[in-house]
Amino acid sequence: MNPIIISATEDTPGIKLDAASEIFEISGRSLPEDVVKFYKPILDWLDEYSKSPNSNTVFDFKLSYFNTASSKIILDILMKLEKISNIHIKWHYPSDDEDMMEAGEEYSDIVDVAIEMVEY
What we know:
By secondary structure, this protein is α/β, with parallel strands linked by helices. The protein has one domain (4-119). It is 37% helix and 32% strand. The chain contains three helices and six strands. The chain has helices spanning 35-51, 68-81, 98-110; strands spanning 4-6, 14-18, 23-30, 57-66, 87-93, 115-119. A six-stranded mixed sheet has the order 1-2-3-4-5-6, with helices on one face. β2 (14-18) and β3 form a beta hairpin. α1 (35-51) runs parallel beside α2 (68-81). The chain is globular.
Protein backbone atom coordinates (compact mmCIF):
# COMPACT_ATOMS: atom_id res chain seq x y z
CA MET A 1 0.00 0.00 0.00
CA ASN A 2 1.17 3.46 -0.80
CA PRO A 3 1.50 5.64 2.29
CA ILE A 4 -0.40 8.87 2.76
CA ILE A 5 1.76 11.67 4.07
CA ILE A 6 0.17 15.13 4.33
CA SER A 7 1.92 18.02 6.03
CA ALA A 8 -0.08 19.97 8.59
CA THR A 9 -1.28 23.47 7.80
CA GLU A 10 -2.98 26.03 9.99
CA ASP A 11 -6.37 24.48 9.13
CA THR A 12 -5.60 20.85 8.31
CA PRO A 13 -3.92 18.14 10.34
CA GLY A 14 -0.76 16.31 9.50
CA ILE A 15 -1.53 12.80 8.30
CA LYS A 16 0.90 9.90 8.33
CA LEU A 17 -0.50 6.55 7.25
CA ASP A 18 2.36 4.23 6.41
CA ALA A 19 1.83 0.51 6.92
CA ALA A 20 5.43 -0.38 5.99
CA SER A 21 6.87 1.95 8.64
CA GLU A 22 4.02 1.19 11.07
CA ILE A 23 3.23 4.89 11.49
CA PHE A 24 -0.43 5.83 11.78
CA GLU A 25 -1.00 9.36 13.03
CA ILE A 26 -3.29 12.36 12.74
CA SER A 27 -1.91 15.47 14.41
CA GLY A 28 -2.47 19.21 14.67
CA ARG A 29 -5.59 21.26 13.99
CA SER A 30 -8.53 19.94 11.97
CA LEU A 31 -10.80 22.56 10.51
CA PRO A 32 -10.58 22.05 6.76
CA GLU A 33 -12.91 24.05 4.56
CA ASP A 34 -14.26 20.85 2.97
CA VAL A 35 -13.97 18.11 5.58
CA VAL A 36 -15.36 15.35 3.35
CA LYS A 37 -12.97 16.14 0.50
CA PHE A 38 -9.96 16.36 2.83
CA TYR A 39 -10.65 13.11 4.70
CA LYS A 40 -11.97 10.96 1.84
CA PRO A 41 -8.50 9.64 0.86
CA ILE A 42 -7.82 8.80 4.51
CA LEU A 43 -11.10 6.89 4.87
CA ASP A 44 -10.47 5.07 1.58
CA TRP A 45 -6.91 4.18 2.68
CA LEU A 46 -8.20 2.78 5.97
CA ASP A 47 -10.78 0.66 4.11
CA GLU A 48 -7.99 -0.81 2.01
CA TYR A 49 -5.65 -1.24 4.98
CA SER A 50 -8.32 -3.06 7.00
CA LYS A 51 -8.39 -5.83 4.37
CA SER A 52 -4.81 -6.79 5.20
CA PRO A 53 -3.60 -4.96 8.31
CA ASN A 54 -0.26 -5.34 10.05
CA SER A 55 -0.19 -7.88 12.88
CA ASN A 56 -0.31 -4.94 15.31
CA THR A 57 -1.45 -1.40 14.59
CA VAL A 58 -0.91 1.59 16.87
CA PHE A 59 -2.91 4.63 15.74
CA ASP A 60 -2.10 7.99 17.34
CA PHE A 61 -4.46 10.94 17.49
CA LYS A 62 -2.49 14.05 18.45
CA LEU A 63 -5.03 16.74 17.71
CA SER A 64 -4.77 20.14 19.35
CA TYR A 65 -8.15 21.31 18.03
CA PHE A 66 -10.95 20.12 15.75
CA ASN A 67 -14.23 21.67 14.65
CA THR A 68 -17.68 20.11 14.70
CA ALA A 69 -17.49 18.89 11.10
CA SER A 70 -14.18 17.18 11.84
CA SER A 71 -15.60 15.51 14.95
CA LYS A 72 -17.98 13.43 12.81
CA ILE A 73 -15.14 12.35 10.50
CA ILE A 74 -12.97 11.45 13.49
CA LEU A 75 -15.79 9.19 14.66
CA ASP A 76 -15.94 7.66 11.16
CA ILE A 77 -12.20 6.99 11.34
CA LEU A 78 -12.53 5.41 14.77
CA MET A 79 -15.37 3.19 13.55
CA LYS A 80 -13.15 1.96 10.72
CA LEU A 81 -10.30 1.37 13.16
CA GLU A 82 -12.45 -0.70 15.50
CA LYS A 83 -12.82 -3.29 12.72
CA ILE A 84 -9.05 -3.83 12.51
CA SER A 85 -7.71 -6.73 14.58
CA ASN A 86 -4.96 -5.99 17.09
CA ILE A 87 -5.56 -2.23 16.98
CA HIS A 88 -4.28 0.05 19.71
CA ILE A 89 -5.58 3.63 19.65
CA LYS A 90 -3.88 6.42 21.58
CA TRP A 91 -5.56 9.77 22.17
CA HIS A 92 -2.90 12.35 23.07
CA TYR A 93 -3.99 15.56 24.81
CA PRO A 94 -2.25 18.43 26.62
CA SER A 95 -2.47 18.23 30.41
CA ASP A 96 -4.20 21.62 30.50
CA ASP A 97 -6.81 20.81 27.81
CA GLU A 98 -9.83 19.32 29.52
CA ASP A 99 -11.97 19.62 26.36
CA MET A 100 -9.57 17.47 24.31
CA MET A 101 -9.36 14.91 27.12
CA GLU A 102 -13.16 14.74 27.34
CA ALA A 103 -13.46 14.39 23.57
CA GLY A 104 -11.20 11.31 23.68
CA GLU A 105 -13.22 9.86 26.55
CA GLU A 106 -16.49 10.45 24.68
CA TYR A 107 -15.16 8.70 21.58
CA SER A 108 -14.01 5.84 23.79
CA ASP A 109 -17.57 5.46 25.09
CA ILE A 110 -18.99 5.34 21.55
CA VAL A 111 -16.66 2.92 19.76
CA ASP A 112 -16.15 -0.71 20.61
CA VAL A 113 -12.38 -0.52 21.08
CA ALA A 114 -10.28 0.76 23.95
CA ILE A 115 -8.69 4.18 23.54
CA GLU A 116 -5.64 4.86 25.63
CA MET A 117 -5.62 8.40 26.99
CA VAL A 118 -2.10 9.87 26.84
CA GLU A 119 -1.56 13.11 28.71
CA TYR A 120 1.43 15.25 27.80
